[in-house]
Design a protein that fits this description.
about 190 residues; mainly alpha; 9 helices
């Protein structure tokens, strides 16, 4: 652990996951779909669960903290990249969208009718927000077997939807299992720190 409280191997894993996302989005081959897409996003959710210390939050502080660190950056980057696409990029990279459709995509918070096509990778921020709120709600159930039962049900429900729900609720329901396992292993993997 560094003097700032950061765990170097976790930062290294996050860096590796970021590189894999870049590779996965630029290669677009069967290899990237099979190998990289098989674990790069679960790794992000696992690492997020690993560093989540839910005991320091109440409902109010959890919502405020997650809103400030995930939702505000989501809206900020979304609007900035939408303006860039609208003013600059639309002339040489036209998308099959009317200028206002990305604003609907921003509110929806998930790829829906390609309304986030100008910067679709931002889906991750609303999804992580929903995942963390679901996790915080589950931790209030106190008994691990009830939490695991709820995760199994939510994961099953998440797989049922073939279209992205608002704010990636269905994806967050599946991502919750990786986040939860990361948080369970927090005690074991970070106890020396």
């Amino acid at each position: 652990m560094t003097e700032t409280g950061r765990v170097q191997w976790i930062d290294g894993c996050k860096g590796l996951a970021i590189l894999l996302v870049i590779l996965g989005h630029t290669m677009r081959t069967d290899i990237s779909r099979v190998y990289i897409y098989g674990f790069h996003m679960p790794l992000f959710f696992f690492l997020s669960g690993l560093v989540c210390n839910e005991k320091k939050y109440t409902w109010g502080t959890c919502l405020k903290s997650r809103f400030n660190t995930l939702v505000i950056p989501y809206f900020t980057f979304y609007l900035l990249t939408w303006l860039y696409w609208l003013i600059v990029e639309r002339s040489f990279r036209p998308l099959c969208m009317i200028w206002w459709q990305p604003l609907i995509g921003m509110v929806y918070g998930a790829q829906w009718h390609d309304f986030m096509a100008h910067n679709g990778i931002l889906w991750f921020l609303p999804c992580l927000f929903v995942t963390e709120i679901l996790f915080f709600a589950l931790k209030k159930l106190h008994k691990v077997w009830i939490q695991l039962s709820a995760i199994i049900v939510l994961t099953g429900l998440g797989f049922l939807f073939k279209t992205n729900l608002p704010w990636c609720v269905n994806i967050a329901s599946v991502a919750l299992q990786f986040f939860f396992v990361g948080n369970l292993l927090r005690i074991v993997l970070l106890k020396q720190m």
